[in-house]
Design goal:
alpha/beta; TIM Barrel; eight-stranded parallel barrel; globular; binds 1,3-dihydroxyacetonephosphate
Amino acid sequence: MRKQIAAANWKMNLSVSEAEILLDQLLASEHNLSANQEAIFAVPAIYIPLATQKLAGKNNVYVAAQNCHPKANGAYTGEISAPMFASVGVKHIVLGHSERREYFNESDAFLAEKTNAVLAIGSTPIFCCGEPLEIREAGTQNSFVEAQLKNSLFHLTADQITKVVIAYEPIWAIGTGKTASSEQAQEIHAYIRSVFATKYGQAIADQISILYGGSVKAANAKEIFSQPDVDGGLVGGASLIASEFAAIINALK
Ligand code: 13P
């Protein structure tokens, strides 16, 4: 059974004291994770030790990084490598978020290198894909997303691809309050799974968790997560409010 995941992406938000308060509030809230469910917190890198310490001993709860550099070490001022994250206990790294693709010019080829780096140390890439508004309006979102996946992931072996979590995040739904309808989410998630099935076979594709991201909140999480090919969410704004994110965790199937 593939994993159902509620992943928080705090992005570049919160002071350290605000981060501490949010983690304490989350710890105080009720959430029940079953064996196939995970809650993942992609916090700013500087707060990883704090979050790891706060969440220690919680079953199926992980602290993630929001990005990494593809090289293990070297003269890359300001960057943090996948092995460095692993050394402080991080097991998941978000890659290819549309904000990084757009503001930092991250290419498919560069993301392929990062994916290799994360898999090489036995961590899980949470690989983001998703189309801008003009592509959705043109109706070519499937081929757009398919190209992102092919260009960055299709060199992986079947065994490696089962270790990747996909996050489909339509750019027009990020931070806009505009969510894809559950039908739109299901349609493209099923398409993404079919892309992997064609390349790796249905049994492999069925093991890959595909998260939806884009204005997920407590009020819509259950409806979106109930779709058969939606295996949870990657949540920005609502993950900064403890009661919202606790409800989103509880909306996992
Ligand atoms: P919002 O939930 O704020 O729309 O952000 C989604 C996102 O980008 C998560 O990575």
